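User: Predict the structure for this protein chain, please.
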Amino acid sequence: MKIKISNQKIFKFCIIFISIFLLIFIVMALTINNTPILQTVPKVDLKKYSGKWYEIASYPQRFEKGCYCTTAEYTISEKGYVIVENSCNKDSVNGRLSSIKGKAFVEENSGNAKLKVQFFWPFKGKYWIIDLAEDYSYAVVSHPNKKYLWILSRTPKMDDTVYQKIISRLNEKGFDLTKIQITKQL
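Assistant: Here is the predicted structure, written as structure tokens:
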């Protein structure tokens, strides 16, 4: 006795099988990454945020290779965007000064905590302020993918207690603390 299976039944079976497989795959993908979604601070006063910041620590980036005494200076332009000037001494604390200028644009409805920074047109990078002292004495900046991280201070040195509290909050937010490197400052 031969069992007849039509092409239509085979097609329906394949569609159901693929749908179930994709559903299982999506559920697994969503549950594997249990790190919390990155949140920014609720509001940033850009006038208070403006000025000079010293990089205390960061995730090493290609574009900062060989940098010491790294700083960032933010100035609000007459046109409403933020002028960004990043500087560092190359290859040693007494090395040649290297700097780059860019623009930062506030994302709407972000409380000024999400910016898009542009050093080379047309490319823009996400700059999210994820931790900020009430008195604007320190800030922590990242990207939603958590591949970038900067701990900034208004002074070249940061109190170790403050630094350790920041590190603890970064750990809670799912950052890989083993990647953080202290920036040498004078």
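Confidence is low (pLDDT under 50) at residues 21-33.
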